[in-house]
Amino acid sequence: MESYRLTISEIKSGYGDKKITPVSVMDALKKRISGLNDKINAYCFTGGSGPVDGKGVLGGVPVAIKDNICVKGQPATCSSKILEGFKPPYNATVIEKLKDAGAVPFGRTNMDEFAFGSSTETSAYGITRNPWDTNRIPGGSSGGSAAAVASDMAIAALGSDTGGSIRQPAALCGVVGLKPTYGRVSRYGLIAFASSLDQIGPITKDVRDSALLLNVISGHDYMDSTSADVKAPDFTSALTGNIKGLKVGLPKEYFTEGIDKEVSACMNNALSVLKDLGADVKEISLPHTGYAVSVYYIVASSEASSNLARYDGVRYGRRSPDATNVIELFKRSRSEGFGEEAKRRIILGTYALSSGYYDAYYIRAQKVRTKIKEDFERAFKDVDCIVTPTSPTAAFKIGEKTGDPLGMYLSDIFTIPANLSGIPGISIPCGFTEKGLPVGMQILARHFDEETLFRAAYAFEQNTDFHKRRPVL
Amino acid sequence: MKKPVIDVKYVAELARLELTPGELEKFSRQITDILGYMEKINEVMVDDTPMTTHVIKVKNILREDVVKEPMPLSDVLGNAPSKEGDFISVPKVIEG
Q1: What is the interface pTM, i.e. ipTM, of the complex?
Q2: Cβ B56–A183 below 8 Å, yes or no?
Q3: How confident is the model at residue A267 (pLDDT cuts 50, 70, 90)?
Q4: Of A159, A382, A389, B54, which one's alpha carbon is 20 to 30 angstroms from that of A8?
């Protein structure tokens, strides 16, 4: 098999047997990318280097990096014109950790501008296409990372997830995407979107690779004071394949209107697999689910409007050439540099934080957020994990929702609650539609209990073969 | 339910954005729709509910006050769109 098709663990054992070398894998991957990236547009930049000597737990493993995670000296644009030409003078903590483990951060994957989107259509560098059907979107905002892994243009990738931006594209591209617990992974060097929601996580070909990457990137970091001082276990020890007696909750609010019939059918099959493996599946209720999208778009846009205030054309990024005073410089640089969705969210967020509206929107949303968080706390008294579809539909067509921002926002309905509550979530392949589009199953667990996610996901994966299918390209 | 009213032009000014007439019209319509949808959160009783400020327990992070090697000035200035010597330059701020 061509080495670009391998998983991290296969590559590591291939290095051990000397069947392949770090140099041969990198060469194979570069060839794959040069032959395919024009079609998929998963990468907006394909450079990168490092010691490819194979030493370390991820020694000689190339990892594709989303364009909002800083790698010293490489472009980091968040797929926005406003950061055109920007090269960070430092590495994100996750990059330092990857390098310490011997991995090679390679390439910059395309994304929705500043991670504002669910389809990778708002990128200033063109849309990314779904490898399973190039007329469809790959999901977003980490659509480039998911499409790169799904099309074997990457062995594994890092993405970021603020409202589903790792899990939803992973589902729509048929790969594994993990959003760790808020605080599990340092956000230092992740260009900020919504600081109370953002989390970096892996997008991989299987569950074992997800655990291997989380082992490397997790941990407390004094450069991010919201990173948690919690000891991370060896996550691969959760890959037992045994889920006998595991208590699985199905939230009735997630299995009602709005789910595509084929997604529903895949979920039903998946649930019978879990039951056959001895899981104890029962219905639960998360009564405030219906408010999650509203709360999210108030909180996330508010935080984004504040975080994006830094782009003023002064210290870095795009500066409008013809401003005659400083205020004009700010206005023109921002108006020329930000795309439409970024402007829309900045306005929405600025409004929700503005005098006279702050209490009605921002404060109230943060209170309803507490209700959503309490729903999960209550549910996890009875069950070990919660299973839902990752997305209400499979990949939609390019252009289908671009004129309807609210419709686009509603496609994140199942992934948003985990970010609002800070709990971890994983999406794994759980079936295909009749047209051959992948469907993802989401598993959610308590704070800092990624082990249960891996345990359940791995058991399911070992008894199905959805993760082994690859698109014909 | 009363339709929320947003003066997009005024809010854009607060956010230091200049909108084209087309953007102004489009955003006014779209954001009014989005805010209309968000009215839903008023259904929830939250009088006695605290705000979520942190999703996990956090504590103050303190460390020894030890001087470390700072980032070199050339790195700090490396991305500046315009500079003079060791300074970032901008158009005139104070008239006079």
Answers
A1: 0.94
A2: yes
A3: very high
A4: A389
